[in-house]
Amino acid sequence: MTDTIQPSNETTVPDTSTWPLLLKGYSNLICKTALYSPYPAGNSPLKRPLRDHLKYGVINLDKPSNPSSHEIVSWVKRILKVEKTGHSGTLDPKVTGCLIICIDRATRIAKSQQNAGKEYVSVLKLFKSVSYEELKKSVQFLTGKLYQCPPAISAVKKVLRVRQVYSNDLIEFDSEKNLAVLRIACEAGTYVRTLCEHLGLVLGVGGEMAELRRTRSGYTKEEVGLVTMHDVLDAKFMLDRDGDEKYLRRVIRPLEWMLKEMKRVVVKDSSVDAICHGAKVLVPGVMRFDPEIETNDEVVIISTKGEAVALGIAMMTANQILTIDHGVACKIKRVIMDRGTYPKCWSTGPVAMEKKRLIKQGLLTEKGKPNDKTPPNWLKSFLERKIDE
After folding, report:
1. What are phi and psi of 147, to 5 degrees?
2. Which of 66, 114, 259, 307 sits CB 3.0–4.6 Å from 303 for a disulfide?
3. Tell me, what's the pLDDT at 251?
């Protein structure tokens, strides 16, 4: 027995599989650096004040039949008394299922889910009898890239376009009633109504869509977090009457909940406000990143607290970000976080301070551009930075 700690080469890796939202699996991200200055700004997405929780909130709503998507969004805005609401994809009035309602700042990520596609369960009504084998063969035939023209009742321009149907499965077929249930995974903008009509044409008997339900919108499924309009109304009533936030926080989820499947880039706290003002993500500001990032991939840029700062486009692969110490790692596609959430920290680094000194001495122009008196070493570094940009 000894009171001293014995030396050891063993290292422990924390279990981050249970960490919330965008911090889940944090230890699986490649570590570029662990040195940064934490700032007492921002909040964990699950611990935001109610005002900020609403501002950065999304609702996975089970849309009822008959009201239009526009009406539903308007009703939610009126119930919650918020400034702005939007949705991530229109559903026809008779269609039910997942309708993602985005509130205030969360409306900026509404289109980010479209690349993940949609999934529907549809009831197909055939006008004449066919065999199970014929129907299954036709369903498999209408898979892949298909030509479609939007239906007459749709609000978009009636032009021929190509949409991808990833999978088209026949779940059930009633030969007596000529009704079939289909599960369809497809690209955003695919019209299932048109697909059902095309199935009828392929079979030679004619057909139409009898019912439709969206079971997945982007990465959001109906099995997790689906709520009804009654839930939204009751949650707001409980908040107003009893001051109870619990129900409302369950109905409205942080927008980070919708971005869990995206590749991540973790940046230092000192970089956050610059990114909120539109600055590119430079390699020195990166702390951790997804090991599978490739050039031109869409990524979510997050803070050390797990907050979504912006959506970006990767300008480097994961290997390049790891091995070099300069250059642009990501360019910004859409800023999510409000400016001023984190303190302004640019123009405080050694290069910025040296630039201010040279301007003061007249060795650079008032706008920081080289002139006849500029030192050769600064001119060389200035040209290198221009090449990197």
Report:
1. -80, 135
2. 307
3. 92
Residue 109 CA to residue 255 CA, distance in Å, equals 8
Query: pLDDT-derived band of residue 221, with 50, 70 and 90 as boundaries?
Result: confident
Tell me if domain 47-114+221-255 and domain 118-217 are identical in fold: yes
Could you list the active site residues? 92
Domain range list for the chain: 47-114+221-255, 118-217, 350-388
pLDDT reported for residue 175: 87
> Does position 1 have pLDDT exceeding 70, yes or no?
no
Question: At 230, is the pLDDT very low, low, confident or very high (cuts 50, 70, 90)?
Answer: very high
Query: What pLDDT does residue 6 have?
Result: 64
Mean pLDDT of 92-120: 85
Give the pair of three-digit tokens for residue 143.
């898979």
CATH number of the domain located at residue range(s) 47-114+221-255 in this protein: 3.30.2350.10
Identify the architecture of domain 118-217 in CATH: 2-Layer Sandwich (3.30)
231 pLDDT band, cuts 50/70/90, is: very high
Instruction: Specify the pTM.
Output: 0.80
Other C-beta atoms lying within 10 Å of the C-beta of residue 197: 18
